[in-house]
Amino acid sequence: KKNYSQVYPNLIKIYLRNKQFDQALGTAQEWEDLESTAIAYYYIGVAHDSLESPDKAISSFSKAISIQNNFVQGYISKSRAELKLDRLSDAYSDINKALSYDKNNVEAFILKSEIGVAKNDFPNAINDISRAIVIEPENVELYQKRGLYNMKFSQYANAIADFNKMIILQKDNPEGYYYRAQANAETGNIEHAISDYQRFEELSPGVAGLDIEIEDAKKQLYELNKESNNPELILTNPKTKGLNLNISKGSEMVLVS
Prior knowledge:
Strand order of the largest sheet: 1-2
Largest sheet: 2 strands, antiparallel
Number of helices: 13
């Protein structure tokens, strides 16, 4: 019997990397015609998901899991597709199944935290991302996620601590300064916010809308100083805030509002 388990996955991965999703799907289906294995159905699901067909993806991941019921990546991918369809109960059940087979799977904890956010359950989302941090304590992306969750939950001191950790781990990480500036502004630490915005500008010159946010922070500082009859900063024709800054992280677009 021929073993297709090396040739087909490699070819499918090449198609997926090059965003040739139709070719990836066709190749995976050709493989499944030859071998009805869990991994063949899994790649059919991945191709369907890449083609924005989450229902078909879920069906394929379910077939993969029915063949191999401890298929952790199958449960994770199925859960992610269910989250896209707002099937939160199913997504939560499947991600817990994945973690029952692999209790230290960081990807699963990240996804579980995102399901918590979709349910507006920020305490559990923060708890799940914190468990991921215990496993990978130097993963900068995890601190960013937890910081953003803390901001959504109005836990600004905790958010600042997370963004501080981002900067400690990657001192030239522009997102760390940008998000810390937002958190500082929320807590009234306007001078620190301005400093962080300016550091972000140094690391990411020419970002649209940043000058407006800096001017807005300076205006807030001016108003605070004016109230205390001790103006330390005078602005001429301060601009009005009109833009928020989107920062893309992988396939996600993160916006704090």
